[in-house]
Design brief:
This protein is an alpha+beta fold and 110 residues long. It has one domain: Sandwich (Immunoglobulin-like), CATH 2.60.40.1930. It contains 1 helix and 7 strands; from the N terminus they run αβββββββ. The longest helix is centred in the first third of the chain and has 20 residues. This is Secretion system C-terminal sorting domain-containing protein.
Length: 110
């Protein structure tokens, strides 16, 4: 009986401390994103997130027209390389969205 009461007391303390640490609100963790361009012919995007969350990576022209799109949902982390050799020289925008909100963006030159 003492073990049961002790386990219940610890569980209650943990639940109270977890609730206090988040302010009583449940939130989603934002994905960690790194966008980098090692040469003018490609751009690399690394996304680390919780599996099941939807993250969208889009490469747009200067005018905002989407040229390339990738949806990431099942994987926990993903490394993407976009080859830009078929696109004309110019400025492009790489956008990473989660829950309809842009969490990372970078302008790249080709």
């Amino acid at each position: 009986m003492k073990t049961f009461i002790f386990a219940t007391a610890i569980a209650m303390m943990l639940s109270i401390s977890l609730q206090a640490s988040t302010g009583g609100k449940t939130g989603t963790m934002k994905a960690k994103v790194h966008i980098f361009q090692t040469n003018t012919e490609s751009v690399d995007v690394y996304v680390a997130k919780i599996p099941g969350q939807l993250v969208k990576v889009t490469i747009c022209s200067e005018s905002g027209t989407p040229l390339m799109k990738t949806r990431i949902k099942k994987q926990g982390s993903r490394y993407l390389r976009y080859h830009l050799n078929e696109l004309p020289a110019g400025t492009y925008n790489v956008l990473v969205e989660q829950d309809g909100e842009v969490i990372s963006e970078m302008n790249i030159q080709k």
